[in-house]
Amino acid sequence: MTKVYSIVEKVIEVCGNFLIEREEHIKMLVLAVITGGHVLIEGVPGVAKTLTAKSVAKALSLKFSRVQMTPDLLPADIIGTKIYDQKSGDFKVLLGPIHANIVLVDEINRASPRTQSALLEAMQEKQVTIEGDIFALPTPFTVLATMNPVEVEGVFPLPEAQLDRFLMKLPMGGLSREGIRRLLRLDLDAIEEELKNLKPVVSREEVLEARRELKDVWVDDSVIEYVIRISEAFSTHRAVRLGLSPRGVAMLLLLSKALALAEGRKYVIPDDVKVAAMYTIPHRILVRPELLPDGLAKREALVREIMSKVEVPRP
Predict the structure, then answer these.
(1) pLDDT: is 124 or 250 the higher one?
(2) Residues contacting 203, CB < 8 A, separation 6+
């Protein structure tokens, strides 16, 4: 049993009681925190995006903060600013909500491009600059950004540079018929009470220990070649205008390692890469609109089609 496997199982066990049909989402959020990656959560309002993020943070003993994005939000509202203290006669720093282990950026596409860009340094460098002074962010640090896929009025689409910084895109849909039945049996106040009474089951030190476990995962040369063939397949496909960046390829392998550990293995198999591809690739590629008019809706299908044609290494 790996440390990552143990952590994932513990968090799912304590959160699964009131987070209906969200086991896979809990697992992927935990893996994002362990790897130090960021997640773009795509879903309509009311599917428990915030509740899931808060629950995972609490179960992992990590500091959680939330930023509600609006068009008039300024970068200083996120990263912090300096104010003049009349008592001391000096300037003091007020740190913004970005200074937490897990930061939920709600409706990221509602913020102006200027404010969205304020997240770039934080997400990539794990630090922010406030009026010339550099402040390191806590470790671990993960941004969970939500996006409503059906709203097109008053939103600012994320640029490719920002999308590429997300380890994965995590679609969060509605519940099945049985899931709705289970939800209706629960009282909404009872769910809030469950979250309030949720006890941490993993320490911050255990999370960092699990992160070190990633270095011990064995990746065979055949799997490396498989990842390279996947990258080449997307770069040369006629419907793809821009394929995977080197960062995208590296994140595909990183998530594959984390998925292997979550299954209790310390070696990567092609199936890990196949699963990781569906989370790490769709939001990264640019499609040709003339060949794929409803590109955003069809990216997942395109990824599956291209993946199915890439030769899989045999044992």
Answers:
(1) 250
(2) 61
Q: What is the pLDDT of residues 38-93, one digit of tens each?
A: 999 998 888 899 999 999 999 999 999 999 999 999 999 999 998 888 888 888 88
SS3 194: helix
Distances (CA, A) of 281 to 72, 125, 163, 212, 231: 31, 22, 11, 25, 10
Strand 286-287 and strand 240-242: the pairing is: antiparallel
Distances (CA, A) of 298 to 136, 155, 214, 232, 238: 39, 21, 32, 20, 15
Query: Do 297 and 247 lie in a common domain?
Result: yes
Q: Distance between CA atoms of 315 and 306, rounded to whole angstroms?
A: 22
Does 111 share its domain with 244? no
Q: List the one residue out of 52, 62, 65 whose CA is nearest residue 14.
A: 52
Residue in the block written with tokens 């990264």: 284
Six-digit token string for 298: 């069809």
Residue 315 domain-assigned (yes or no): no
What is the number of structural domains in the chain? 2
Residue 135 falls within a domain, yes or no? yes
pLDDT in tens, 142-198: 999 998 877 667 788 888 878 899 999 999 998 999 999 988 888 888 888 889 999
Last residue of a domain, one of 157, 186, 208: 208
79 within a domain of the structure (yes/no): yes
- Quote the domain boundaries for residue 296: 217-309
Q: Per the structure block, which two tokens stand in for 101?
A: 């282990």
Q: Which residues contact 15 (CB under 8 A, 6 or more apart)?
A: 22, 26, 52, 55, 56, 59, 198
Tell whether 114 and 236 lie within a shared domain: no
Q: Which two tokens stand for residue 113?
A: 């491009």
191, 208, 225: which is the final residue of a domain? 208
